[in-house]
Inverse folding.
C-alpha cells in the first residue's frame, strides 16, 4: 500500500491485483452467478409444478388470476430503476454528488414502488384465499416471486444505506495496469476516473441482477401461455350439459 | 501486445458516454412488444419462440450495457456466462425429466 505515485490523491483502499481487477467486484460477480443458479432452480421448480396438481388447480391460484397489466407496470418500473442506477453511478464518477444522491434515491423509490405493487398483488390473492398452500402453482409462484421481492427489499435498503449512511463512500478501485509501449514493462496508474464509487458499482450490479431476474420471471411466469385446465373443465361441463339437453 | 492479458486490453473507463437512456427506451419498447404479443393469444409454436427472443434481447441489454459487461474485463463475462449456461442446461434437463412444458 505504500504507493507513492498517486499524484497527491488519497492512497487506494484496494491493492493492485495480479488480474488487474478489483477482487470485490470479482467476488460480487461470483455471488451474482450463485444467485442466478438459485433463481434458475426456482424457475425450473415453477415450470415442473405449475400444472402438476390438476385436482386443486382451479380452486387455488392459477395463471388466470395473474394480473398482467399490474405486473407489466412493475416491470417498467424496475427497468427504469436500472436506468436511474447507472445514471447515479455516472454522476458519482463525474463528481456530481448532488445528482448522484438524487438518482440513487430515485432508484430506491422505484424499488419501493415495485415492492408496493407486489404487496398489493399478494394481498389480493390472500384475500381471495389463494395462498401459498392452495396448490402447487401457488406454492412455486409465491416461493419464486417472494424470493425475488426479498432481493428487491434488500436492494432498496442497500441503496438507502449508500445515501444516508455513506456506506463505502470513500472506497476506491485498485490501480490499473498499464504496459509500457515497446518495453512491455508493467506499471500501475490511477483509474482515469479517479477510481471512486466501487461500493456504488457493486450495489448497482446487485440491483441490475434483480432487474434481470424480473425480466425472466415476468415473461416466463406471467406471459408464457400454458394449457388452462379450468377452461377445459368449463368447456367439458358445457359440452356435457348440452348433450344432456339434446 | 499479443501476450497481453485480456484484462489489460480495455481500460475500465473505455466507455465515456454509454447510451443509457437509449438503452432504457429500447428495453421499454421491447417490454411493450412482449406484453402486446402475449395478449394476441396466438398459437404456442409461434408465441413461445418470439417471447424467448424478446427475453434474450432484454437480458443482453441489461447485462451488456447496464452491468457494463460490454466494456468490462472478459473475466467478468466468464463469471456471468458460466452459471447462466449451467442454469439453462439445468432447466432443460428438468423439463426433459419432469415435463415442464405441459
Amino acid at each position: 500500500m505504500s504507493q507513492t505515485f498517486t499524484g497527491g490523491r488519497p492512497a487506494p483502499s484496494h491493492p493492485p491485483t495480479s488480474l488487474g481487477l478489483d477482487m470485490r467486484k470479482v467476488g460480487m460477480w461470483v455471488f451474482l452467478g450463485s444467485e442466478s443458479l438459485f433463481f434458475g432452480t426456482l424457475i425450473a421448480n415453477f415450470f415442473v409444478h405449475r400444472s402438476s396438481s390438476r385436482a386443486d388447480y382451479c380452486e387455488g391460484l392459477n395463471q388466470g388470476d395473474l394480473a398482467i397489466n399490474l405486473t407489466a407496470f412493475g416491470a417498467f418500473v424496475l427497468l427504469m430503476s436500472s436506468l436511474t442506477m447507472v445514471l447515479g453511478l455516472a454522476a458519482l464518477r463525474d463528481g456530481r454528488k448532488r445528482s448522484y444522491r438524487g438518482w440513487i434515491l430515485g432508484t430506491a423509490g422505484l424499488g419501493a414502488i415495485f415492492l408496493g405493487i407486489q404487496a398489493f398483488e399478494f394481498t389480493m390473492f390472500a384475500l381471495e384465499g389463494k395462498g401459498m398452500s392452495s396448490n402447487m402453482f401457488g406454492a412455486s409462484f409465491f416461493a419464486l416471486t417472494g424470493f425475488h421481492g426479498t432481493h428487491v427489499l434488500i436492494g432498496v435498503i442497500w441503496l438507502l444505506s449508500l445515501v444516508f449512511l455513506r456506506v463505502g463512500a470513500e472506497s476506491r478501485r485498485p490501480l490499473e495496469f498499464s504496459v509500457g509501449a515497446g518495453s512491455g514493462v508493467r506499471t500501475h496508474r490511477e483509474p482515469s476516473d479517479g477510481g471512486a464509487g466501487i461500493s456504488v458499482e457493486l450495489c448497482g450490479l446487485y440491483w441490475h441482477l434483480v432487474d434481470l431476474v424480473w425480466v425472466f420471471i415476468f415473461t416466463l411466469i406471467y406471459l408464457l401461455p400454458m394449457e388452462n385446465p379450468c377452461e377445459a373443465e368449463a368447456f367439458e361441463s358445457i359440452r356435457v350439459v348440452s348433450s344432456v339437453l339434446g | 501486445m499479443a501476450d497481453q492479458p485480456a484484462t489489460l486490453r480495455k481500460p475500465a473507463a473505455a466507455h465515456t458516454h454509454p447510451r443509457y437512456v437509449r438503452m432504457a427506451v429500447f428495453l421499454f419498447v421491447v417490454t411493450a412488444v412482449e406484453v402486446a404479443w402475449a395478449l394476441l393469444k396466438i398459437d404456442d409454436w409461434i408465441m413461445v419462440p418470439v417471447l424467448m427472443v424478446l427475453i434474450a434481447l432484454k437480458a443482453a441489454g441489461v447485462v451488456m450495457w447496464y452491468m457494463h459487461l460490454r466494456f468490462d474485463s472478459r473475466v467478468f463475462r466468464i463469471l456471468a456466462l458460466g452459471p447462466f449456461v449451467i442454469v439453462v442446461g439445468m432447466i432443460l434437463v428438468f423439463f426433459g425429466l419432469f415435463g415442464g412444458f405441459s
